[in-house]
Amino acid sequence: MENIVTKGLQGxxxxxxxKSISHRSVMFGAIAEGxxxxxxxxxxxxxLSTISCFQKLxxxxxxxxxxxxxxxxxxxxxxxxxxxxxxxxxxxxxxxxLMGILANTxxxxxxxxxxxxxxxxxxxxxxxxxxxxxxxxxxxxxxxTPLVIRGGKTSGIDYQSPVASAQVKSAIxxxxxxxxxxxxxxxxxxxxxxxxRMLQAFGVNVQVDGLKVSIDGGQALQGTRIEVPGDISxxxxxxxxxxxxxxxxxxxxxxxxxxTRTGILDVLHQMGAELTFTNKHEDEAEPFADIExxxxxxxxxxxxxxxxxxxxxEIPIIALAATQAEGVxxxxxxxxxxxxxxxxxxxxxxxxxxxxADIEATNDGMIIKGKTPLxxxxxxxxxxxxxxMMVAIASCIAEGxxVIEQKEAVAVSYxxxxxxxxxxxx
Length: 426
Ligand SMILES: O=C(O)C1=C[C@@H](OP(=O)(O)O)[C@@H](O)[C@H](O)C1
Ligand SMILES: C=C(OP(=O)(O)O)C(=O)O
Known about the structure:
GO terms for molecular function: 3-phosphoshikimate 1-carboxyvinyltransferase activity. By secondary structure, the chain is of the alpha/beta class. The chain has helices at about 20-30, 45-55, 90-100, 125-130, 140, 165-175, 195-200, 230-245, 265-270, 315-325, 345-355, 385-395, 415-425, and strands at about 10-15, 35-40, 60-65, 70-75, 85, 110, 135-140, 145-150, 160, 180-185, 205-210, 210-215, 225, 250-255, 275-280, 290-295, 300, 300-305, 325-330, 360, 365-370, 380, 405. The chain is built from 13 helices and 23 strands. Bound molecules: shikimate-3-phosphate and phosphoenolpyruvate.
């Protein structure tokens, strides 16, 4: 049960490690030569699934403490045939990137996940990998888990991706790392580029030319030290909370500022939020900064086009912000939301409506009219971490009690979320 926050949200939060970067640091460390030490790792359920899969592939991975991980790399050819199923849990990033890494392994692997993963489309990765000669089988012609992969000798491809997806791009590039010749992926819009940046940190030459990324096969990765910045997708919940809860002032430390991820900042700025940036570290492989947010008067805006991949995971919390903005907010070009942990167009619209929002679903997004007072109700995360955190922030401004079902889902990307929220309610 959550209560309306009476005195505003006040304080400083160190944002936990970036999920996308944490996954990649373990995966790339596993296929590198030598040791990789990861600092600022996110011990969220999804990243723990990645660790567990790579341990089953024979990699020695040690949690030194909650946020420090040591990976003893086995090199590109060093993975071992797993004796057990590779269970990715709830994590789309784990299964799709893993498929790329397994593309050249001359053994058999079986991949499964939870109920949500079983509904998420894998053809977007299966298709290009098959073009590279990988043997993949699975339900509905390889579109859904359980999936079975037997890697082989792959050949590079020149692939035009129909979707702006970092998971698709990364899977193909990782397969291309071991393929004959060059592999090129061209996207319709720029998706997050953590794979490109991190492969370079591991000593791999990656060519980036606008929306086109190329990699030559046969390059080895060298173990390295990875510093994971805070996850802007996690910070987003407190950025919006600080803006919409009256009398708030929140400082978020060490938030990742990779430009392929900062669409939420552009949107909040355009909506009129007061944000201040300090301690900027712009020269890192993954830049970061501290962000202060104060209660702000927001206005509705239109969000679509190339901005969507730069804020795709933030749309649930942006929808909540829009309920507190004057005027209409239109979110379009975001049909990808339908294939996330839940159909996030439907879950956002249904849960926010239960709390009194004026919001309707469209084919590729939603239309929200504000500003609307919210009221408490029984709502659910539906097992989707981002929906759980969004309704928890909504409960801070709702009149009366809110009951959140399946709130434990937040541990997928932000295990300390409720502790941090309580910490701010002084
Ligand atoms: O590559 C990644 O780490 C991710 C890419 C995005 O998915 P898509 O590649 O499906 O767009 C994002 O929604 C997901 O949370 C993490
Ligand atoms: C979509 C997400 O993750 P994944 O695709 O890795 O399950 C997310 O974290 O919002």
